[in-house]
Amino acid sequence: MELTIEQLAKKLGGSLVGPGRAVVNAVGPLGSAKPTDVTFYNNEKHREALGTSQAAAVIVSTPVEALDKPQIVVGDVNAALIEALCLFAPPLKGPTPGVDPSAKLGRSVVLGQGVSVGANVVMGDNVRIGDGTMIGPGCSIGENSTVGSHSRLDANVVVYHNCEIGNHVIIHANSTIGATGFGYSFIDGAHRLVPHNGGVVIEDYVELGANCCVDRAKFGNTIVGAGTKIDNLVQVAHNVVIGKCCLVAALAGISGSCRVGDGVVIAGQVGMADNLEIGSGATLTAKAGVMNHVAPGEVVMGIPALEYSKARRVVVSTMNLPKLVEKVKALSKRIEQLEAAENDKK
Amino acid sequence: MELTIEQLAKKLGGSLVGPGRAVVNAVGPLGSAKPTDVTFYNNEKHREALGTSQAAAVIVSTPVEALDKPQIVVGDVNAALIEALCLFAPPLKGPTPGVDPSAKLGRSVVLGQGVSVGANVVMGDNVRIGDGTMIGPGCSIGENSTVGSHSRLDANVVVYHNCEIGNHVIIHANSTIGATGFGYSFIDGAHRLVPHNGGVVIEDYVELGANCCVDRAKFGNTIVGAGTKIDNLVQVAHNVVIGKCCLVAALAGISGSCRVGDGVVIAGQVGMADNLEIGSGATLTAKAGVMNHVAPGEVVMGIPALEYSKARRVVVSTMNLPKLVEKVKALSKRIEQLEAAENDKK
Amino acid sequence: MELTIEQLAKKLGGSLVGPGRAVVNAVGPLGSAKPTDVTFYNNEKHREALGTSQAAAVIVSTPVEALDKPQIVVGDVNAALIEALCLFAPPLKGPTPGVDPSAKLGRSVVLGQGVSVGANVVMGDNVRIGDGTMIGPGCSIGENSTVGSHSRLDANVVVYHNCEIGNHVIIHANSTIGATGFGYSFIDGAHRLVPHNGGVVIEDYVELGANCCVDRAKFGNTIVGAGTKIDNLVQVAHNVVIGKCCLVAALAGISGSCRVGDGVVIAGQVGMADNLEIGSGATLTAKAGVMNHVAPGEVVMGIPALEYSKARRVVVSTMNLPKLVEKVKALSKRIEQLEAAENDKK
User: Fold this and answer.
1) Contact B251/A253, CB-based, under 8 Å?
2) Which of B253, B314, B341 sits opposite C342 (nearest CB)?
3) Final residue in a domain of this structure, among C60, C87, C114
4) Which residues of chain B have a CB within 8 Å of the CB of C87?
5) pLDDT of the residue at B345
6) What are phi and psi of B97, to 5 degrees?
7) Which of B46, B68, B87 finishes a domain?
8) Catalytic pick among A150, A168, A172, A238
9) Is the pLDDT of residue B293 over 90?
10) Which of B191, B241, B335 to probe the C interface (max C CBs under 10 A)?
11) DSSP 3-state assignment of A119?
């Protein structure tokens, strides 16, 4: 796709400051944008990079003074950036609509309109797929499971039986939904698996990364709430309930039966004990080891995780601990001297 | 499946206290059980929840006094719970016995009786599969590898060549058994892969989660001992030997050539240096970074991991470190005053 | 393969010390080598084990005195070990050359000479595969992506569209290359995915473990530099640039837009904040939580990561913190006594 800057400004609903004749065909960041790229500017600390950027034009929220470059002024740079990236997305053929002849569908499978089922897909009995949904090659969907409309399962995703995946959901390649959770009872000298009669519910607009695991529940359902976005290699254990619009970064692990509120941010490599309650709006910073409930809006850090300001004091004082050791040594000497002086007097 | 409480008590080998006519069709936990669920009670701290539970009946180990609900008294609540969950498991058709026509089997493949081989399975030459074993769709099993009897490989599991998987083993979807380990020698300015001539042995009754990796050995075998259960997204490196009946939780990593005893518990996100000896019955608590051998029965915690009581003292004193800093500051002032007094005397 | 010790010495370009008639057919480590194994010795701390090893012969770099065993003296034990392991590798049929009839190739796919395409492979339009490359069963390669010559993608690897994989690359089973990165903008109360118009470049001689994820870039490419080796279950986020000849161990996570130099060692379960610069030759020790840029050659440790010697002092003093607490308590008492003495005088 090629557009003049003027055309692009119109499509983004923005107003143009400067000449609009030049043609752009891609989006690039300030530092590496080419002369045929449009770039974007949403952070004053990049003002210098903006000055030297080779981009043909820049998307801004307020006109930048003394800038020798066409500017497209929009209400929300991030939203305009998403639109521009969609406009200039590399052209792809995408998946072919219809069911690939190599796909193997069980009995009573129901497919909506415009569904695409890739090569070598396997679906059990009673699977239902909503309108416009794309099931990538090599996916396996267990009996009685459903995928809503306008969703996308990429290659080799495995969904076990009795799982419910909503509308506008994206699940990236090699992820596993509905494997049995890690629940054992030690009986007669052996770990015996507790049957997992429950399922998984992935609500609308959830996006799951590649090679993720969401385990099925023992009872009821493991739930990932609407609009929640999960990165790669994340573990969501059995009976976890994640609220709406959360963010979960890579390699995080959410243990069994944890209840995570809405809008929670779980950073990379976070782990947590099971059965915890994480309040809405909480933030668990990277690598936190969460051992206790977290209040709504609270930010926690560290292993074990503490409230942020407390954790910060602990971290700072730990970093300075070698100095403290020296200080105590010095104090000890001064006390010895005082004691010696005191003894002299006796 | 529907049963009267009386019928259920009989099936569980329990004795009934209270009326047995009502019908139940599922198991539910105390808090969310429906009026057609049987629930279970094995922890006094849930006594209040038991009182208000809507469940039709409860499985207990000793009769609970003053409870207005039928009770099924059994010897072991956990064992009865497993039985009840099996009884009320959602009915599934399960995999079809026989070999799916799309499966591609190498030469001299030997399949036991009642084996189910799913769609698009690929097996190399000389693969042998024991009686009653189910190979899920999209699995790939390399030449000379064997899977024992009554085992289950879920969809898209990959087993490389020369691996040996025992009886009654479960491997969840998207796991990888027998990839080459991470072993390199730096020669002439490049990392050169050390060939891994060894294999993997997964013993009987092992259960492996989804998206796990068990690497093949350089020499001999990487071994996962009988009855060991491994959660999702776990890394077992080359030449590791894990004993019997261990538990390994999600996102843990067991480094090359570690020898883990029997009955070891490795919690979530644990990591360890290579070549370590972890004694039988040891526990590595969540997120531990184990740098040294661990004695049998020992519990270790922290990064670097220390013996539990020692680690606890370190953690507690670290949490209180900001107070210690204040205390030292105050002591320092008092010493200054003492010194000033001392100087005045001179 | 069976060889006399003499034949083996010749093949390894080594000189033989001792008799050469005995036959060996495998390589084994000192402790567990059988009488038909050749073993290797490259570390003096194993001198005792060498004395008791059952191996028929040993590969050494300098002749060991008073050793009752044939020795093959070579310039580089590690290099000779690799050669010996190749010689004695278990014989495998390996993948069949040619395209399996069940593979599904898009339009304008170009395959080099001697390519092997396994069962159920799916390739989009315009995919190009270089000479001698093997694509394992169940792999999916998106449109416009390329794989160079003499590379190997093991079973069920997924490569998305517009990715570029070099020559002599190995990607182990169930890994995912080119999934969309974890980039969202919060707009009108929802996390909206930022389209990822970029791709992934995996350079020559890279080896990637099983169940790894390398996300595609928003702009430009996520790059893994030539000769870099990555273990299992590793996350490489969008727009990361990894240099040449790095090592990245299992369960590590490299966050968005990090720039990692050449020869960097990233140990297991390391995590890092996004947009960091890790200098060439740096080492990030196991479980490090890297929050800041790391200078070339620097070794960092801990959460948050500090320069090694500094981190070591912090760790050691933290381990001794309970003692420091006691010490401060004792000092406090001595100050009290001094103060009491001082008060007595007033």
Assistant:
1) yes
2) B341
3) C87
4) none
5) 79
6) -65, 160
7) B87
8) A238
9) yes
10) B191
11) coil
Here the CATH number for the domain that contains residue A7 is 3.40.1390.10
Residues B300 and B220 in one domain: yes
Please report the residues numbered 142 through 181 in chain A whose beta carbons come closer than 8 angstroms to any beta carbon of chain C.
154-156, 170, 172-174
Does some domain include residue B309?
Answer: no
Parent domain of A209: 157-304
Separation CA A176–CA A181 (nearest Å): 12
Largest CA distance in chain A: 103
Residues B299 and B173 in one domain: yes
Query: Neighbouring chains of B at 3+ CB pairs within 8 Å?
Result: A, C
Contact A251 B251 (CB under 8 A): yes
- Are C301 and A309 within 8 A, CB to CB? no
Q: Is A192 on the interface with B (CB under 8 A)?
A: yes
Residue B247, min C-alpha distance to chain A (Å) = 9
Q: Does C183 share its domain with C78? A: no
Examine the domain organization and report whether A176 and A290 are in the same domain.
yes
Query: Can you tell me the ipTM of this complex?
Result: 0.96
Q: How confident is the model at residue B287 (pLDDT cuts 50, 70, 90)?
A: very high
Q: For chain B, what is the domain count?
A: 2
The label of the residue with tokens 């193997």 reads: A104
Contact C197 A89 (CB under 8 A): yes
A233: distance to nearest CA of chain B, Å?
Answer: 7
User: Testing the interface with B: which of A174, A258, A303, A343 to mutate, by most B Cβ within 10 A?
Assistant: A303
- Report B:263-302 residues touching A (Cβ under 8 A): 268-269, 286-287, 302
CA A185, CA C206: separation in Å to the nearest integer? Answer: 43
Q: Which of C150, C168, C238, C293 is catalytic?
A: C238
Note whether residue B8 is domain-resident: yes
C-alpha separations of C291 from A205, A300, C288, C304 in Å: 31, 16, 9, 6
Q: How far apart are CA C120 and CA C297, in angstroms?
A: 45
Same domain, A295 and A188: yes
Q: Minimal Cα distance from B346: which residue of A? A: A341
- Separation in Å, CA B284 to CA A255, B1, B246, B289, C36: 16, 41, 11, 9, 39
**Chain C hits for A342, Cβ within 8 Å:** 338, 341
Q: Which amino acid is at B292?
A: N
Predicted confidence at residue C344, as pLDDT, reads 86
- Would the CB atoms of B172 and A180 count as touching at under 8 Å? yes
Mark whether B295 and B176 lie in a shared domain. yes
**For residues B132 and A53, what is the distance between their CA atoms, to the nearest angstrom?**
65
Q: Is residue C22 situated within a structural domain?
A: yes
Say if residues A153 and A114 touch (Cβ distance below 8 Å): no
Pair C80, C218 in one domain: no
**A232–C289 CB contact, under 8 Å:** no
Which segments in chain A show pLDDT lower than 50? none
Is the pLDDT at C346 greater than 80? The verdict is: no
Q: Is A150 a catalytic residue?
A: no
pTM over 0.90: yes
Kindly identify which residue of chain B lies nearest to residue C86, measuring between CA atoms: B195
Tell me the DSSP string of C159-211: E-TTEEE-SS-EE-TT-EESPPPS-EEEETTEEEEPP---EEEE-TT-EE-TT
**Region class of B327: left (phi > 0), else alpha (psi between -120 and 50), else beta:** alpha
Interface of A with B in 323-342 (CB under 8 A): 324, 327-328, 331, 334-335, 338, 341
For position B167, which CATH number holds? 2.160.10.10
Distant-in-sequence, close-in-space partners of B217: CB < 8 Å, separation ≥ 6: B181, B196, B198, B199, B200, B238, B239
Average pLDDT, chain C: 97
Q: Looking at the domain assignment, is residue C152 inside a domain? A: no
Tell me what percent of the residues of chain C surpass a pLDDT of 70. Answer: 100
| Same-domain status, B266 and B181 | yes
Across residues C59-82, what is the average pLDDT? 96
